[in-house]
Amino acid sequence: MQVFYYILTLAFYLLAPALVVYLCRRYSLLAKIGPIMVLYAVGILVGNIPSLPSEIALWQELLPNVMVPLAIPMMLYGCRFKREELGLQIKVSVSGFLSVAIAVAGGYMLFGRELNEGAEIGGIISGMYTGGTVNAAALQTIFQTESSTFTLINSYDIVISFLYFVFLFSIGIRLFRRLYGEPVERAMLDAIDSADIAASVSEVSDYEGLFTREGVKQMGKIFGVTIIIVAISGVTAILLPESWFMVVFILMITTLGVAASFVRPIRELKRSYDVGMYLIYIFSLAIATMADFSKIDISAGLNQIAFMLFAVFASLLLHAVVCRILKVDADSMVISSVAFINSPPFVPMAAGVMRNRSALVTGLGAGIVGYALGNHFGVLIERVLEWL
């Protein structure tokens, strides 16, 4: 019986995105919302069903860790890269770290002073909102904070991240594009090659012909190249200290994915982006089902959740202002914000919503910098907050 539930829950994760994509193609309202937001809603509803089979926990842990490393190189194969990427990376990284530092300091002054271990919480979320959960866990060990404090940080982060994505994916991206004075049509045309423009208009690929003889053959090539890239990246990263594994792993996957895009037969695998995007749909659904709101006691930690809310949305606003001053385009600002606030695994999801493949490299680059410097940054911010 247990095996049946494992198979059933896996089938849900693998097939539900296909149904959502079909419905988004059929109904214009769902198409405007987009598959990712629909999958988030479905996942949250499923994750809060009473008496959910415990077998789902295995896939909640496994699928995000598998889908993202496979999706990243697939979505990079068809990209075109420009020489000015390095300068852009420096601008968004400086803006991101500066914005989080100011936002966390402001949030601490308003809400954090009243908290037990307030400075430590500020340090942990500084690492979390420039790197990721890996950095937050490392900082919790450094500061020796209570396990209950760290549990609350992660629980509240689920709610805040959901609100952050709802804002960005509903009105945020369009709002920033308008405020930056950059026509959306030009950004799309720069990012998407001519063969994909027609499919991109509705934001949803129809995956037509994917399971024909030619489609299956192409998928075999896509997965073959990708597995080789992931294997090389994993072997390289595992040889280094554990604290560097995630940094090196994501860096290697991204670097090899970019390198593969210069190989013409790989670049011409037109289905690679669609296949990678489907894996991101699975990732989105798996992440959303983890949002069990019954375990979150908001009333018991209003100051802490207010601290974290302020840090996220104030840093987004500051990042937008600084990037505008530095003449960074709207999409690069948004994708780097996602990389900092939610970590690199969420970057392909955001790029898919924006319909901008070229933003992938900018976002992943910012996320790698965040992974690498997040621990040092968190310690620095904790010391500053103690002084305040």
Which class of secondary structure composition applies to the elements?
Answer: mainly alpha
**Low-pLDDT segments:** 183-203
Q: Strand percentage, roughly?
A: under 5%
- Run of helices and strands: HHHHHHHHHHHHHHHHHH
Query: How many DSSP E strands?
Result: 0
**Integer average pLDDT:** 84
Helix proportion range: over 70%
Total helices: the number is 18
Distance between the termini: 57 Å
Protein described:
Residues 183-203 have low confidence and may be disordered. Helix 4 crosses helix 11 (213-238). Helix content is 76%, strand content 0%. With 388 residues, it is an all-alpha fold. The chain is built from 18 helices and no strands. The chain starts with a helix and ends with a helix.
Write the layout of secondary structure elements.
Blueprint lengths: L1 H25 L1 H6 L1 H13 L8 H21 L8 H26 L7 H11 L4 H11 L3 H33 L4 H8 L5 H4 L12 H26 L6 H17 L2 H4 L4 H17 L13 H24 L4 H13 L4 H8 L4 H29 L1
Relevant terms:
single chain; 0% strand; mainly alpha; globular; 388 residues; 76% helix
